[in-house]
Amino acid sequence: MVNRQTADGVIEAIEASGRHYRDSIPMIASENILSPMVRRACDSDLHGRYAEGLPGRRYYQGCDDFDTIEEVGIESARRVFDCRFANIQSTSGTNSNMGALKSLAKPGEKITAVSTADGGHISHARMGAVGVRGLDLITYPWSEERMEPDIDAASSMIRKEEPSVALFGQSVFLFPTPLEELADAAHEVGAKVMYDAAHVLGLVAGGQFQDPLREGADVMTGSSHKTFPGPQGGFVISDSEDEKLHRRLNSGIFPGVCSSYHLHHVAGKAVALSEFEEFGESYARDIVANAQALGESLASEGFDVIAEDRGFTESHQVVTRHGETDSGAGKVAAATLEKAGIITNMNMLPGDTKALSPSGLRLGTPELTRIGMGTDEMQDVARFFARALLDEEDPSSVRSDVKEFKGDFQTVQYCFEPGPAYPGL
Ligand SMILES: Cc1ncc(COP(=O)(O)O)c(C=O)c1O
To answer: How many helices (H) and strands (E) are present in the chain, helices listed first?
Structure first.
């Protein structure tokens, strides 16, 4: 019975987590929720099945129906991302990066990327996928003012270092990368240009951010569950005409970094891609409008919002400063907000050196947008922030108002069958 109680305890904790999110304002920029149809795909018999290889070329029997699913998904991905090549098998954004890096560079070769201190992702760092591939990392000079690589200095650096891969994209991603200029420098020295769209994939596909494949990226990777509102997983995408590159990218994923992959999530991605074709553009537009409204509302409440001079943001993210560099003020703010029913994450800002005691917060609007909040509600959200952090009101009284406010936003939208956002509770 002890084992049974342990299992029951896990189920109870899952339900408690669901209730926590249902009753809160979830603002983690990398998170999203599933549509009912995508949820059905993920909760299907495919969960227990195996496939290796590509549709029509499998190592297992039983894959005929799944072949249809993956083929449909690849075709939808080619339309959604307007590209010649799409691999929809990878199990996460990091897994996509590992597969792509395996295809594009050999151990010991050079790669240029944004440093984690400037908002780059750990998979772009020595401690992550770049290190696992044994690549020699050099990070770009950074413009703190513009929150993007310093175009002239980074172009000269690429020309001098002659990397095999010039990697772009960040986890703190407020503004489009000046990709055309930087890709020109990379191509001049024979580098492949890789753009990590993990965070902004839905905005890119919805035509609301930048168009990396037309601005010089040879390969684009991304997560399928952030601004692109699908199940956990990844994509590897290219518009190159080079079929040898397509084959290398496929084999970077299998057998490179996956054997079987998560078939139920591939099916979920295929459904999410179809939904995105119908609703993606308006979803992406609303996400960005909400982020801009949130930035303005927080600034009007008296918060120090990063990049005010550039209009705060052109993406789904807003970044706020809560104290001195390395003060840990971001950590304190995130903890207070959670007590008040607002879920965020602390984040390093330019100048911070300690990931566990940073001075900032990174806020995202994908989930709030998906449950129907608009720019008016961003003012309400900013008011809750001010009550919790500036007015220092008792967090539990803010929390009960947050719960009531959230009661009106319980339906997942921008999908074929709008339904409960936090089902089964
Ligand atoms: C720029 C960037 N790349 C890759 C990833 C990894 O994505 P995943 O969590 O799907 O592995 C992230 C995650 O937030 C990211 O910000």
So the answer is: 14, 19
